[in-house]
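Lecture notes, unit on protein representations.

Consider one protein chain, 385 amino acids long.
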Amino acid sequence: MLGGRGRAGRCRRCGCGRWRAGIGSGRRVGHRPSVLAGVPHPARTIGRVPEETTTKRVLLAKPRGYCAGVDRAVQTVEEALRLYGAPVYVRKEIVHNRHVVETLRAAGAVFVEETAEVPEGSVVVFSAHGVAPQVYAEASERSLKAIDATCPLVTKVHVEARRFAAEDYDIILIGHEGHEEVIGTAGEVPDHIHIVDGPEAADTVQVRDPARAVWLSQTTLSVDEATQTVERLRQRLPLLVSPPSDDICYATQNRQQAVKLLAPRCDLVIVVGSRNSSNSQRLREVAIEAGAGAAYLVDFASEIAEAWLAGVATVGLTSGASVPDQLVAQVLDHLAELGFAEVEEIVSAQERLIFSLPQELKRDLRGVPARSGTADGGSLGPSLQ
């Protein structure tokens, strides 16, 4: 079973008797994997490693992995499966991570591209990236029970877009053309939105009135890229209005800042994340820009080529916001086998934000007994921030 609290048991990596993790939830649980909670695991040492050491080591970024929005979205599918039974349909990938999607698929989730593929009257979950109003209308026409797992920080951008459109502003949406989040936001007010995909595109965007233009952004952009794009826009549109609050999400910024701290000290940075994950791709780019000798994006430890590590003394390690921390633990184990047994955690921020489940799911969950645990400790590890 997916989700809930894991039962107490021995470490599945070495049988050392320490607590093992519950899964799927970033909420406070009664136990955490020892290595990632900062307690030394028998296989390696975690702590400050002197700069002058020649020992092969790993600099482990914190925060990393699951953000509150991803945690909420994964829990939403898990709870829907428990409450309604399989199949539960999910429009698009619930989050952009291969392991998460395949694990949920094995539990009974059916991933589809559009609501037209969902049988009438079925349960459908909308992904964390958000959807346009047209998608809600299509779901209603098919009598689907729709559960919206859109990240609340993405919803905030949707609300801003509607408000500025109602005031007849031209909205410059900084984001990657074709990304699901950008499609969803643009779909809110398509007649008012201009998508600008990077600084170069800022030179060609046209608005009706330069005094009534505002910029918004995709939540998972590189902070530096967004800043450069806004600066480029202001060269042509000096009266460009900024959003009332930062659109780039806290988790994106925190993970990028942690990478900026460790990258200059690393010969190589490994980012655990899927290739269709925007925030994971940005972490790899940020690592290079911040001074890492090289940076690679991998889904699993098995994808790490030993040739990458030739002549390397210090490896930086982080993960995207849709990556369960157990995948990072597997990379740490793999690196330890290759001689990188020393681990130092580089902390840029502490994260404690939790988002509640969607209201439509919470209503149906009232009166349903809570899960008491799982038989095997689970598959989708929590974010251990």
